[in-house]
Amino acid sequence: MKSRTFLLLAAPGVLLGLVGATHPSGLRPDTAEHWFWMHVAGVLVFPLVGVALAWLVRGRRDALAIGIVVAAYVYATFYTALDVISGIGNGYVTAELGDDAVPRPPAIWLAFRIGTMLGDIGAWALLVAAALITIDTLRRRGFSPVTLAPCALLLTGSFFLRPEHIFWPWGSLSCIAIGLGTGWLGVLLEQDSARPLRAPAGPSQ
Questions:
Q1: How many angstroms separate the CA atoms of 4 and 8, rounded?
Q2: Could you read off the pLDDT of 142-179 as tens digits, one per residue?
Q3: Which of 7, 76, 93, 166 could form a disulfide with 171 if both were Cys (CB 3.0 to 4.6 A apart)?
Q4: What is the pTM of this model?
């Protein structure tokens, strides 16, 4: 069960990291088709990072859990918007224009601008979610290497996603760190849930 939980929660981030390892360094007519298709795949995976984070507080209704879910939702929607506009949209247009589109049409730059603005909102929301999850985890489990390590992975990956996106190497490694941190935290959560409740102490004899 724990291994399945780890795989399911880590998979979105790790998959994005592996796909990001093939990310073209720039959008050009010769890279446009690959750029387009990898971002089509990204539409299916980017939101799942937010779903995995929200899973960590499933069933809870406290303020901290609600904040995590809201931040994860904002990430999932706004960062996917970046993927659609700058990835799918610009990739498709560049591929259709072909080699004759030199210099790049101003509309492409305008689309990148709004895509980046929306993506920044999503990336900051992801960092907020990671920070709230870290606070929640440390509050519940205390400070220990086993607790700090997955939180550090999640926070570091979330911090570098905004400037690096999923470009190789740092963007891809950031996504993998997010995935590994999320999966690890899911395993810790299951371990905590499986612990038997301590029986209340009886009256002294």
A1: 6
A2: 999 999 999 999 999 999 999 999 999 999 999 999 99
A3: 166
A4: 0.90
